[in-house]
Structures are given as C-alpha cells and as structure tokens.
Design brief:
By secondary structure, this protein is mainly α. The protein has a domain at 31-111. It is 54% helix and 0% strand. It has helices spanning 2-14, 19-24, 36-47, 49-52, 66-75, 77-82, 100-111. Helix 3 (36-47) packs across helix 7 (100-111).
Length: 117
C-alpha cells in the first residue's frame, strides 16, 4: 500500500503544464455567431479593400460585393490566400498572414455556407 501511494505521488509530481502558455494563449472573439456583415466584411475592409475593394481590382480580384466574396469563398481562393496555403498567392500581399482568429472566422463562415447574413 505504501509503495503504491509513493508511486502515485511520484507520477503526479512529474505531471506539469506550462502556466505561461495558458496565460498568453489568446481566445478568439465569438466564433459561434460569425456573419458576413458583422465579421467577414469588416475584416475584408480592414485588410483587403485597399487593393481589392472600392473599384480597385488588383490581380483581377474584387471584394466589392457579397457575390464577389462568395465566388472567392466557394472556389477556395479566399481561404487559401489568407491562410497562406501552398499553391495560393499569400494575402495580404507583402504583409504578414492574418491572425489565426481572423482566418478561423473566415473558415467558419465558409463552412457554414458563406451566407449573406
């Protein structure tokens, strides 16, 4: 019995976790209620419209309307580009990849049917 207790104590003492990683891990904002109007369009305006919005069609890509965005979403081009996936031009061009929360919001929106909501 004593040997078992000592063995269990030794096992639990060896179990650790990185407290700093738990504290610094960011939590994404609401990813349950991702919508085009509240989540996706503002993200595109902030990061993409300087080249692909307001009439600008750099690379023949426009994000001016929901239909434009929907076409890119359903083709895989939107998510592939912003996540810097192999075989896609990484966007935003010349900038760092969007943060994981933003990419995740786009992924969720697409997976939920890329609705105009």
């Amino acid at each position: 019995m004593i040997v078992t207790l000592i063995s269990l104590y030794a096992c639990f003492q060896g179990c650790t976790y990185d407290k700093e990683a738990l504290v610094t891990t960011s939590i994404c904002p609401d990813t349950i209620n991702v919508s085009f109007e509240a989540s996706i369009e503002p993200l595109l305006r902030a990061h993409c419209f300087s080249c692909h919005g307001n009439g600008s069609r750099v690379g023949n890509v426009s994000l001016d309307s929901y239909d434009d965005v929907m076409a890119l979403a359903t083709s895989g081009l939107l998510l592939g580009s912003i996540s810097h996936s192999a075989g896609f031009d990484p966007m935003p061009d010349g900038s760092d990849k969007l943060d994981d929360c933003s990419i995740n919001a786009v992924r969720i929106w697409i997976n939920e049917g890329a609705r105009n909501n």
